[in-house]
């Protein structure tokens, strides 16, 4: 844990968004998502304002659109569920492209797609502009329980180590002619997962002993606290401020 480790979601850059303190970005992203969720689902234009504000933030962060679009695949299960809602929901029916669909289901599908996409894009932007170490420091500064922050830190660091171990085991199976194509091979995969769990547990014990030998006493060293400038607070508050206006517009216009 002594060295910094990047993450696959982080996009290295030097934009104004990258330079903002992590705890301000976390609060800004959380407030923006909550305001998006609070926007009435029957509204339309407020979501366009949310999207425009978020796209401006992405442009200010200088994160390529293709970089974020590739990572939006995590939303596919929600898209599939939203596509089914108009057909399985009850209530008044209407015709859409010659197909009878549920009006409440259509509205629910629209709200799920709009809010889900905006939420995922916000999380991706936060991850793309903030190093994992800075995220943990921001959570600590926001008074998140220390043990929870440490668990998250170890998870971010060692999930890639465990994934690498899994890849090596897969290569070893393939080199021995193993090709899982039927349920008959499931016992082999189950034993592989059991072996991976044992190896990960043993690695965790070795890491813990190594930390104790280096003076670990139940908490990681505190990070330096950097003073926050007023301009940084204003920049971080811009996105949720626009979202608040749009959400209020949606509520008043109902």
What does this structure look like?
The chain is mainly alpha-helical. It contains ten helices and two strands. The chain has helices at residues 16-19, 22-38, 45-61, 65-71, 76-88, 103-129, 132-141, 146-175, 186-213, 230-252; strands at 93-96, 99-102. The chain has a two-stranded antiparallel sheet. It is flat, with a radius of gyration of 23 Å. Mean pLDDT is 85; it is low at 1-5.
How are the elements arranged and paired?
Elements: H1 16-19, H2 22-38, H3 45-61, H4 65-71, H5 76-88, E1 93-96, E2 99-102, H6 103-129, H7 132-141, H8 146-175, H9 186-213, H10 230-252
Antiparallel strand pairs: 1-2
Helix pairs in contact: 2-6, 2-7, 2-10, 3-6, 3-10, 5-6, 7-8, 8-9
Quick description:
Helices cover 69% and strands 3% of the residues. It is mainly α.
Order of strands side by side in the largest beta sheet? 1-2
Q: What percent strand?
A: under 5%
Outline the low-pLDDT stretches. Answer: 1-5
* Subunit organisation of the chains: single chain
Percent of residues in helical segments? 55-70%
Total strand count, please? 2
User: Termini separation (Å)?
Assistant: 52 Å
Q: Main beta sheet: strand number and arrangement?
A: 2 strands, antiparallel
- Average pLDDT confidence is 85
User: What best-fitting shape do the alpha-carbon axes yield?
Assistant: flat
Count of helical stretches: 10
H/E element order: HHHHHEEHHHHH
